[in-house]
Design brief:
The complex is a heterodimer of chains A (108) and B (131). Chain A has 108 residues and is an alpha/beta fold. Helices cover 31% and strands 30% of the residues of chain A. In chain A, strands 2-1-5-6 form a four-stranded mixed β-sheet, covered by helices on one side. In chain A, helix 1 runs antiparallel to helix 2. In chain A, 34% of the residues are buried. Chain B is α/β, with parallel strands linked by helices and 131 residues long. Helices cover 35% and strands 25% of the residues of chain B. In chain B, strand 5 and strand 6 form a beta hairpin. In chain B, 37% of the residues are buried. Classes of the chains: A alpha/beta (108), B alpha/beta (131).
Chain lengths: 108, 131
């Protein structure tokens, strides 16, 4: 099973949109990996616990572990869709989303 | 990216200390690598259970692959000293671990990150990430 861990900020609009964001993530994952399940977890960061460029951060971080390998064009399309999802639903800019996929290990 | 997850003992840091160290991370990381400061993230987690005996803070840095051993050493040494000073603890109680991730596995500002030292990175720095 693939998984996504989402770090969002207390008091930010993403907190109240978790259900919609999760549905969107599942749909994006399904486009790229039809019929594969995606487990989504959330971590809400308290104020004063994350900084970007040394200042209080508004950046959401979405980290995926996928059960399959990806090519660069696939990653670009997949991660781009994730950034657009967060931007569209929360009103943040794409500058406020960091999306990443854990690279496969040599054993996998 | 980079993302520095810093696990600390509960109560060890206040918000001013955390922000000050986050600024140190920008200085140390960018000083060693030349990376754009705007992409340097520092996240704190207070969790005793993830700290071994004798260690009060563990900094886990996930950075773009391709940095040299010397660059990583500068980061490790610099962050150890900076956190110890900010928190008022011995450098022996601070651990720093650096892990690489291929740049093409991360997207920030709507773009797949370029490999360090690549021609694409030079163009990227000259564009939206000009410092």
């Amino acid at each position: 099973m693939s998984s996504a861990n989402c770090l969002i900020h207390a008091g930010g609009s993403a907190v109240g949109l978790r259900d919609d964001l999760e549905q969107g993530l599942v749909e994006i994952h399904d486009v790229h990996s039809p019929n594969a399940a995606l487990d989504v977890s959330w971590q809400v960061i308290p104020e004063g616990y994350m900084f970007t460029e040394g200042r209080p951060s508004t950046t959401s971080i979405v980290s995926f572990t996928l059960d399959h390998t990806t090519t660069l064009p696939e990653r670009e399309a997949f991660l781009g869709s994730v950034c657009e999802l967060f931007s569209d639903l929360t009103g943040c800019t794409v500058n406020e989303v960091l999306a990443a996929i854990t690279p496969p290990t040599e054993e996998s | 990216m980079p993302l520095y997850r810093t696990v600390v003992r509960p109560g060890l840091t206040d918000v001013d200390t955390r922000q000050a160290f986050a600024g140190d991370v920008v200085d140390v990381h960018c000083g060693a690598t030349g990376a754009p400061p705007s992409l340097v993230h520092v996240l704190y987690v207070e969790d005793d259970a993830r700290l071994p005996d004798g260690i009060d803070a563990l900094v886990f840095g996930t950075i773009r692959g391709g940095r040299t051993g010397d660059q990583k050493e500068r980061i490790t040494t610099g962050l150890t000293a900076a956190f110890a000073e900010r928190a008022g603890i011995s450098a022996d109680a601070v651990g720093v671990r650096i892990a690489d991730i291929p740049a093409s596995y991360a997207m920030e500002d709507g773009e797949i990150l370029p490999e360090p030292g690549s021609p694409e990175e030079e163009a990227w720095k000259a564009g939206a990430h000009a410092t």
